[in-house]
Amino acid sequence: MIANETPVLANSLWTATAQSQPEYAPLYGSTEAEVAIIGAGVTGLSAALHLAERGIDTVVLEAATPGWGASGRNGGQLNPGLKYDPDAVTAHFGEEMGARMLRLSGGAPDLAMDLIARHRIACDAVQSGWIQPAHDAGSLRVLEARAEQWARHGVSLRMLDRETVARMIGTDVYTGGLLDPRGANLHPLNYTLGLARAAQATGARIYGGTRAVSLNKTDSYQTIATTNGSVRARRVLLCTNAETDALCPPLARTVVPVRSVQVATAPLPDEILDSILPGRQAASDSRRVMVYYKRDGAGRFLIGGRGDYNDTTTAKLQENLRRISRKMFPQLGDVPFTHAWGGHVAMTADHLPHLSRHGEGVMSATGFNGRGLALGTAIGKLLADWASGTPEAELDFPVTPARPIPFHFLRKPAVRAAVVLFRLRDSLGI
Ligand SMILES: Cc1cc2nc3c(=O)[nH]c(=O)nc-3n(C[C@H](O)[C@H](O)[C@H](O)COP(=O)(O)OP(=O)(O)OC[C@H]3O[C@@H](n4cnc5c(N)ncnc54)[C@H](O)[C@@H]3O)c2cc1C
Predict the structure, then answer these.
(1) How far apart are CA 43 and CA 378, in angstroms?
(2) Which residue of 218, 248, 351, 383 has the fewest C-beta atoms within 10 A of its own C-beta?
(3) Do 156 and 92 meet the contact criterion of CB atoms below 8 Å apart?
């Protein structure tokens, strides 16, 4: 069970199957560091690990425990790229910056796999590819355009016909699909805990149960007051994503936290196992209100989708995922679903993550829009580059001002309305 979480989000497969972890004790009293990182998810921990590898004195402050946020709860898919296709990225950010962003995001699963290998992180990681199946001719055309655009950036994706998708996924509901060989999947909590262990072993100091409550600049230092102490650091990295609180206004108003949920079966019996994702690819359905699914290392089937702010409706959406699974994969028969959990994804107005500076010496990276497992790892490395002296203009992602979303207080009704509209458009195929 996830500690200090509402029951409908707490029964996590990942906490049930997590490796034992060392105690990350709270910070009591004052300390100093070159860099202080707030938030111990993949973004903060990747930053910490890369800084520690360069011998830079680094402290990580985590309000709960490493992996408590989305990093320890997600669907485990290391997906390459951003939400937008390459042409849209280069049109918006320019050829040069666009190409750098595509390299960073496209290479993010490789970076994570490299960290896993170098630090021997046991997290059931397989780089078997990412399937994006299509429901209709329209979504197939979108996938063809995606493959053609990535090809111009030297990345070879493979279009799949109806029969191949049916064989690779184990359902006949799709008309075709796209295989991206860069994609990988893993046990996200064990990956996050592995990053924490590696960062600590390399020299970073990680404090659990330590919320950063205020941030003040004094001389060339930032002073962070925490629940039971304080940290003085030259640079501060805010890696709090959907869990962003009032620490550094207006950061919390730049993201909309939206619940995302998962359900998982018991390990599938041998006679079913080879008929569902036998190659252990992960898949995300191309509809607007997306479902995504994979198998874990023990042969369980997991599927995820959008939740709701209300617990009763969230439980219904989890039930909906079980129903969809049995419909798409009738071979599941009466295999029981044993786990149901969820967390928050941080949505932004433009569906892109944002790197923003808050005065001298403070940088945030938030707004991963449900796609931060690989990308957060890559952006964490980039934050480490900035904190160790790389100028902003040389980073492979633009640094933009933190712009609050207009009418942020209306976020809950707005999210509900958008989901209803997208469901309607999906069902009408428009
Ligand atoms: C159910 C679900 C499924 C998902 N599936 C996928 C997927 O398959 N693939 C994918 O790429 N992405 C997925 N995502 C999104 C992905 O998990 C996130 O984008 C990513 O984990 C963000 O990592 P992070 O380190 O930036 O933030 P988090 O992991 O959320 O970490 C932020 C941490 O900051 C801490 N914190 C906040 N405020 C403070 C403070 N003041 N002081 C100290 N600590 C603080 C929090 O306690 C938290 O631990 C999913 C998310 C969910 C919820």
Answers:
(1) 8
(2) 218
(3) no
Which atom of ligand 1 is closest in space to residue 65's alpha carbon? 49
Ligand 1 pocket test, candidate residues 206, 294, 345, most atoms within 8 A of CB = 345
| Three-state DSSP state, 225 | strand
Please answer whether residues 358 and 232 qualify as being in contact, where contact means their C-beta atoms are separated by less than 8 angstroms.
no
The pLDDT tens digits for 269-322 are: 999 999 999 999 999 986 755 799 999 999 999 999 999 989 999 999 999 999
Q: What's the token pair of residue 28? A: 């009591």
Q: Which atom of ligand 1 is nearest to the CA of 372?
A: 19
223 alpha carbon – ligand 1 mean position (Å):
24
Query: Ligand 1: which of 62, 123, 352 to mutate, judged by most atoms within 8 Å of the beta carbon?
Result: 62
Residue 185 host element (H or E):
strand 184-185
Using pLDDT thresholds of 50, 70 and 90, give the confidence band for residue 417: low
Which residues make beta-bridge pairs with 36?
Answer: 59, 236
Helix (H, G, I), strand (E, B), or coil: what is residue 92? helix
Residues near ligand 1 with C-beta < 6 Å?
Answer: 38-44, 61-64, 68-71, 73-77, 79, 211-212, 239-243, 245, 247, 260-262, 304, 342-345, 368, 370-374, 376
Ramachandran angles phi, psi of 40, nearest 5°: -110, 65
Q: pLDDT tens digits, residue range 343-388?
A: 999 999 999 999 999 999 999 999 999 999 999 999 999 999 999 9
Dist. CA 208 → ligand 1 center (Å)? 15
Q: What is the CATH architecture of 1-124+182-254+344-430?
A: 3-Layer(bba) Sandwich (3.50)
C-alpha to C-alpha distance for 11 and 420, rounded to whole angstroms: 27
Delimit the domains of the chain by residue range.
1-124+182-254+344-430, 130-181
CB 78 within 8 Å of CB 293: no
Q: Supply the pLDDT for residue 68.
A: 98
Phi, psi angles (nearest 5°) of residue 381: -65, -40
Cβ-proximal residues to 88 (8 Å cutoff; 6+ apart), any chain: none
